[in-house]
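Hi, here's the filled form for the chain we discussed.

Project: internal
Contact: R.S.
Residues: 239
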Amino acid sequence: MVKPCVNCWAHGRTEWCVLDRAGLALHDRGRQIHDYKPKDILFEQGQDPDGLYCMESGNVLLSNLDAFKNETAFRMIFQGEVFGIRSFFSEQPHNTTAKALSACRVCFIPKAALNDLLENRPELAREFLKSLGRDRGPWEALLLRSPLQPVHIRLIHLLLILRESCARKVSPHGLVFDLPLQRKQIAAMLATRKETLSRAIKEVEKQGLANFEGRSVTVPDLRKLLEVTQIDGGQLGLT
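And the returned structure, exactly as it came back:
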């Protein structure tokens, strides 16, 4: 039996939190729970959207295949995120493939159930409009793959983007990241090779900005990362 949405730890972080008791009951009748193993595909690029996905646990990586069959990692999906929104509401095929990075539990809301909800609960439709308005779209990917930026700067940008989801504070300005990404996946997100990424990591460590040990990354002073990238901390909510 699927547990009620309101009992999920992520409920308050999702668009579903605006639903009243009757709306949640309607939502619970239509949604499904799916478990995925690492490397399982949730949906593929070019596939027509047939609903929305909500991450209960685990991580998913979105990647794009270009005309030359080169795969580029695009974005990570974390616990508590609803995804597939842009494709669903634009009624366009998915422009990315969603692959499980780890064991995942995902709530799937089929198109028919979702359309029923949206027709009967306009507050939910408004919440999704807000989410679309806040969506940075390709901004993160362009920032991480920009040939105008050295790879070690792009790597720092990635850490800043992942800060909210993957880092814990260990001192007033220090952080420790537990990255769900392998080195080859980080390289793919930065549009570079593993060898180049290794050199970028050494450069970041040489400058005393971070220390990499496997998937654990220690940042002694977040302010120095902001200074190196010349980003105002307020832009990324880091102040």
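Let me know if anything looks off before we file it.
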